[in-house]
Amino acid sequence: MAKKPHQDPLFCPTETALGIIGGKWKGMILWCISRKTMRFNELHRAVPDISQRMLTKQLRELEEHDIIIRKVFAQVPPRVEYRLSAHGETLKPILDALEDWSRDYILKTQTK
Question: Which CATH architecture group holds 17-110?
Answer without folding.
Answer: Orthogonal Bundle (1.10)
